[in-house]
């Protein structure tokens, strides 16, 4: 079915290709940016500050971007966001080629660029998620989302991270030059998409338009509960990923290439999860599928908390990606089907304000937890601490979902 969709739908094929290329760039950046930070400092708070800066725009700008998405041409928003990321990658390239300099100013520059990069990501991702229902039929949304998420995992987690390790080995600047080229190609592919005409949100004052989106979400408690649960999931996920670069270096003793290969293990899970999720959701139903994903999240964090083993860490990332794919395919398809197109940008932005706005707190909190725990527990034990906290948080979510999660 997914292959038929790719063959028969030109615009979906272009969107699919743009997402693949863009996420290959994201996969390279996923390794290259934190690795660049660790070349400057091993202070967990400073490394967390870089990750926090990239996620903070979800908290600051998700709501206004939602109104913008309903008021503007969503395709052009994606193109402009990709071009902005081209410029930012060129800036990092210039920083690296210009020499290290003093650590403080270079880290500060990296934090600023990461913040701007995250701002462009907020605009692009919100527009990209609202554009899909205009390209594929409602009954094809699970298949289309599964195909999109699988492609993003292949390029962003399977190909991108190990490629980044190889590029870093050839030269620290090289990944950022490659990323600039990839984001430029993505912008070109999105530019070629032909969307059907849609009525833009015009005339309504900003706050009135935003209140309309907030009011719709309040009237649909299942969506609101999913948003709050996603906030906790993303906070513990980003916290774990923020510390993972130090965990890989100091607990697992991996090189840049080894770290990239570790992240690739997650890609296998993501690809299989993306392909299998529509069938799992059809067999188990939405509620049981989400409970299964939450149970797996608990196990993932237990493995990372209790053990210091590269194979077990790889297994944990595999399971986390597969479970995250199941959660995303089910919940994103549900939202795309339920939310009216005229409100899709605003309601998605409110959803992501909760669900993604928590990520900077997770990143900064994980760095602060390691810094706080290190004097008492030692460096190695402190690097395990965020995963203990993540296991407890996901276990609490599983209990909450079993009691309260119901769908219309």
UniProtKB/TrEMBL annotation:
GO molecular function: transmembrane transporter activity
Subcellular location: Cell membrane
Membrane topology recorded in Swiss-Prot or TrEMBL: Multi-pass membrane protein
Span of the signal peptide: none
Matches recorded under CDD domains: MFS_MefA_like
A Pfam family recorded for this sequence: MFS_3
GO CC annotations, alphabetized: plasma membrane
The entry's keywords: Cell membrane, Membrane, Transmembrane, Transmembrane helix, Transport
Major place of residence: membrane
Domain Major facilitator superfamily (MFS) profile: 223-408
Bilayer-spanning residue ranges: 12-33, 45-69, 81-100, 182-201, 222-248, 254-277, 289-307, 313-332, 353-373, 385-403
Tagged with keyword Transmembrane: yes
Protein name as annotated: MFS transporter
Originating organism: Harenicola maris
């Amino acid at each position: 079915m997914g292959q038929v969709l790719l063959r028969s739908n030109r615009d979906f094929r272009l969107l699919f290709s743009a997402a693949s290329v863009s996420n290959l760039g994201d996969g390279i950046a996923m390794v290259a940016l934190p690795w660049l930070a660790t070349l400057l400092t091993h202070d967990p708070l400073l490394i967390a500050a870089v990750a926090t800066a990239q996620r903070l725009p979800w908290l600051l700008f998700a709501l206004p971007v939602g109104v913008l998405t309903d008021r503007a041409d969503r395709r052009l928003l994606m193109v402009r966001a990709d071009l902005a990321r081209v410029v930012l990658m060129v800036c990092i390239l210039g920083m690296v080629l210009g020499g290290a300099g003093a650590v403080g100013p270079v880290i500060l520059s990296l934090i600023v660029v990461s913040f701007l990069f995250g701002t462009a990501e907020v605009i692009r991702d919100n527009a990209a998620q609202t554009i899909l229902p205009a390209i594929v039929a409602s009954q094809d949304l699970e298949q289309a989302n599964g195909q999109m998420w699988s492609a993003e995992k292949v390029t962003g987690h399977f190909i991108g991270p190990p490629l980044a390790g190889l590029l870093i080995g050839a030269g620290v600047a090289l990944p950022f030059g490659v990323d600039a080229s990839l984001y430029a190609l993505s912008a070109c592919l999105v530019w070629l998409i032909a969307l059907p005409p849609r009525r833009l949100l015009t005339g309504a004052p900003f706050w009135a338009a935003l209140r309309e989106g907030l009011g719709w979400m309040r009237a649909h408690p299942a969506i609101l509960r999913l948003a709050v649960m996603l906030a906790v999931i993303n906070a513990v996920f980003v916290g774990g990923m923020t510390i993972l670069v130090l965990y890989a270096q100091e607990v697992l003793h991996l090189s840049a290439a080894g770290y990239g290969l570790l992240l690739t293990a997650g890609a296998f899970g993501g690809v299989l999860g993306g392909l299998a999720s529509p069938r799992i959701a059809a067999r188990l139903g939405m509620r049981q599928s989400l409970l299964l994903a939450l149970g797996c999240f608990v196990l993932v964090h237990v493995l990372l908390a209790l053990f210091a083993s590269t194979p077990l860490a790889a297994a944990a990332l595999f399971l986390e990606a597969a479970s995250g794919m199941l959660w995303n395919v089910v919940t994103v398809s549900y939202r795309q089907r339920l939310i009216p197109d005229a409100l899709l940008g605003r309601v998605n932005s409110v959803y992501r304000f909760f669900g993604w706005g928590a990520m900077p707190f997770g990143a900064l909190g994980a760095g602060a937890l390691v810094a706080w725990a290190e004097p008492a527990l030692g460096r190695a034990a402190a690097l395990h601490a965020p995963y203990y906290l993540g296991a407890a948080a996901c276990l609490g979510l599983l209990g909450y979902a079993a009691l309260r999660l119901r769908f219309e």
